[in-house]
Amino acid sequence: MNRHKKHPNFLSGFKTASKKRLSGDSAFKAIVTLIACNIFLILGLMVFKIVQSSWLSIQTYGINLLWGITWQPFPPNSSTSPSFGALPLIWGTLATSAIALFLGVPVSLGISLALSEFAPKSFNYVISFFVELLAAIPSVIYGLWGILVLIPFLQNNLYPQLQAVLGFLPFFQGTIRGSSVLTGGIILAIMIIPTVSAISRDVFAAVPNSQREAIIALGATRWEKARIVMSYGRSGVIGAVMLGLGRAVGETMAITMVIGNSFNMFTSLFEPGSTLASIVANEFTEASSPPVYISALMEVGLILFALAIAVNASARLVIWRSTRKTKEVEMF
Amino acid sequence: MRSYRFRKLQNRIMISLAYVALIIALIPLASILIETINRGLSAMSFSLLFEEIPPLGQPGGGIGPAIQGTLIVVALASIMGIPIGVFSGIYLAEFRQSHIASVARFLNDVLTNVPSIVLGIFGWALIVVAIGWSVIAGAVALAIMMIPIVTRTTEEAIKLVPMTIREAAIALGVPQWKTTLTVVLSSAKKGIATGILLAVARISGETAPLLLTILGSRFWFNGFTQPTAALPLAIFNFSQSPFRAVDLPRAWGASLILIFIVLAINIIVRYATKEKYG
Predict the structure, then answer these.
(1) I need a surface site. Which of A171, B68, B158, B260 has the fewest CB within 10 A?
(2) ipTM, interface predicted TM-score of the complex
(3) Residue A318: pLDDT band by 50, 70, 90 thresholds?
(4) Residue A316's pLDDT is what?
(5) Beta strand extents in chain B (DSSP E only)
(6) Using the beta-carbon criterion (under 8 Å), do A127 and B22 form an inter-chain contact?
């Protein structure tokens, strides 16, 4: 009986509490929402500021900057105006990224298959730590290592042999240089391995076990099982490769330190080159005048920004669609 | 149907190739660690750690200001980046079904993948143009790099907190905001701390954003609106020096300190999250 008597009191107490709770909750929600909206502010401001700073160059050179091939901030005779063309930079970015994918993706796939399909689990734990460590090493240390360890090794051992074997191709002709596009591509390959292998390992891990059990029941070898896993996770792997591409396109310091920073439309991979990112890192602090020089570098940054976002957004889309597919299958 | 012997051979070859890939990837890691530790240790001395940076090519001196600069810039970036990142993560996890949350989550991923040099350009256009090369500009650029990482890991950590814990708190009459700030945050604190540590490790080694914002300097910290030195920048400058014999040992010394920071953080994180993987 006592409890019954208390009931109304309890309810009224509950009511006031719930009123308080509502206001506290909505205030909390408002504050947190406001803080979370920083992302809109940051990205909006970023686009605005970079476009604003490159406006002078956009007005002067417009879209022509994309396919111009001379980069002359300080022309030899003062009567001609400086000219800026980014095509060799785009070419350098594409070439180094292509080399990075060509060398890095097979290795990454091998790693992720070894980790998800072949290796024992205790081994797995240690190895994935080391692969993650590869991602944690700062880019500038890769660059330093590239200059002092990788370049001498490649220049003295690997490149002469490569030229001896594949010298008939235009890509491997001419003087062998250590600071070259090929070295840049190799360093990028090493740097994208952790990204690509970690994501494709997760993709393989998400493949339902029923697929593995089915093919093993049919008498498949472990490699044949791995092939089924790979074909099942194909679109996720494509997404992983594209994220690796995004990393390769945007990588700055290591490649600036090893690519040689010359401005040319190379055909041989033993020639030095530049990428969109490396030219900004290399020339920005010296580009005090003329103002159009800084502005042109800003426009190069804008191109890089757009390229990186396009690559990464499509990678996310592919991964998102593939994991959605896997989840649907898991439900059955 | 191929013969059994062929399939067995193919199986062996492909599995060995996968392990070879693993070894190929670990060679650069081993080489970087060994070279850095070897050459860094032989360059290490008391004066390297605590003296001002001499001009390129001049013997003596150290990298003291670079260590100090990195500590200051990273600390300032963390003060700005960690609260914003953690609260954004709370928002994404607690109000995950709202439209703003899904757009913000996508943009957060976009921001994660913005090339570091572009963040440098942004820091330059936003702050350096207004007040000149400065510590603040570098810290803002690094904070922007840090925010999406912290946001993401906070969100993941909070999502892992079981619903029953929230329900228990709410059943005791604790308002939802208080539940989030006390009960949920304290159960997720390990995951959040992990994310923060990884973000700190990541920004301590970043060079490109600093190159365009704090510029680098040879002297001790001189105020938040002045250029300063930083370890990654010092490594870059030493590596470009024409006087290799004098400057490269300093670069390796600086690399050793940087690698030590990054390695220590990663090992701590790995140890702390062992049950998740082990």
Answers:
(1) B260
(2) 0.92
(3) confident
(4) 82
(5) none
(6) yes
Residue B218 DSSP code: S
Element (H, E) at A72: strand A71-72
3-state SS class at A273: strand
Cβ contact, residue pair B110, A312, below 8 Å: yes
CA gap B160, A160 in Å, rounded: 54
Going by C-alpha positions, the residue among A154, A287, A110 that lies closest to residue B28 is: A154
Could you tell me which of B37, B65, B60 has the C-alpha nearest to residue B50?
Answer: B65
> A127 contacts in B (CB within 8 Å)?
22, 26
Rounded (10°) angle between helices B244-272 and B64-94: 30
Distance from CA of B194 to the nearest CA of A (A): 14
What's the pLDDT at A20? 53
Count of CA atoms in the C-beta half-sphere (13 A) of B81:
31
For residue B97, what are the CA distances in angstroms to A133, A325, B91, B103?
34, 21, 10, 11
- Closest Cα in chain A to B232: A140
Q: How far is B51 from chain A (nearest CA, A)?
A: 22
* Domains in chain B: boundaries: 4-43, 48-277
CATH number given to B48-277: 1.10.3720.10
Q: Is the peptide bond before A290 cis (omega within 30 degrees of 0)?
A: yes
Residue appearing with tokens 């980790």: A115
**Nearest residue on chain A to B99, alpha-carbon basis:** A33
Q: Note whether A17 and B173 are within 8 A (CB).
A: yes
How many angstroms away from the CA of B131 is the closest CA of chain A?
15
The model's pTM is: 0.89
Rounded to 10 degrees, the C-alpha dihedral B259/B262/B264/B266 comes to: -140
Q: What is the pLDDT of residues B177-215, one digit of tens each?
A: 889 888 999 999 888 999 999 999 999 999 999 999 988
Q: What is the number of alpha carbons within 13 Å of residue B247 lying toward its C-beta?
A: 19
3-state secondary structure of A261: coil
Q: Is B215 helix (H, G, I), strand (E, B) or coil?
A: strand
